[in-house]
Amino acid sequence: GAVVSQHPSRVICKSGTSVKIECRSLDFQATTMFWYRQFPKQSLMLMATSNEGSKATYEQGVEKDKFLINHASLTLSTLTVTSAHPEDSSFYICSAKDRSSGANVLTFGAGSRLTVL
Amino acid sequence: SQQGEEDPQALSIQEGENATMNCSYKTSINNLQWYRQNSGRGLVHLILIRSNEREKHSGRLRVTLDTSKKSSSLLITASRAADTASYFCATANTNAGKSTFGDGTTLTVKP
Lengths: 117, 111
Hints:
The structure holds 2 protein chains of 2 kinds.
Chain A: E1 4-7, E2 10-13, E3 19-25, E4 32-38, E5 44-51, E6 57-58, E7 67-73, E8 76-81, E9 90-97, E10 106-108, E11 112-116
Parallel strand pairs in A: 2-11
Antiparallel strand pairs in A: 1-3, 3-8, 4-5, 4-9, 5-6, 7-8, 9-10, 9-11
Chain B: E1 5-7, E2 10-14, E3 19-24, E4 31-37, E5 43-50, E6 55-58, E7 61-66, E8 71-76, E9 85-92, E10 100-101, E11 105-110
Parallel strand pairs in B: 2-11
Antiparallel strand pairs in B: 1-3, 3-8, 4-5, 4-9, 6-7, 7-8, 9-10, 9-11
């Protein structure tokens, strides 16, 4: 079945540094990937839609300069949290839709837990 | 209230019992999906039901959809301790992948 690899699974960084999270579709091509943020015991909040070869579409209230998204190939999207602060600490999850699939089924990465000190 | 609300928020049952979770939504949809999330992990797709379908089965899972009431239910029969997880419904108005997730139901199955 479809597999999405997300890396790193955990990252701890100092305030002011930038952190990059990768999301790879391993056995399918994804023209669209999605990035979410999840707070403890809460639902997923869609941050942005990553489109291969074009600019990402950000949801209202999400700072595009803070959360940089790059989708340079059909199998890789990256989320960079720039100048991270403690309030950016969260669980970040990506998902991808198989471009060859007509159904609306998303395959999720395992998530990345970011802790900003 | 946001699109895709589940109830109950938390459900605790004994192994072998059935678990029923409900999801309500507000806008028109193309399809509705149910996902499962183990603690600290990503989501796993369980089942998708299209707007023109009323019921769907997959193993021990049964999903119903009532578009007139804008609601869906997920039934897990003969639950197992390994079913302990959070369950989310997600709605979409296209097949493009963008879905809105509900608040989730945390299910605990006691052995």
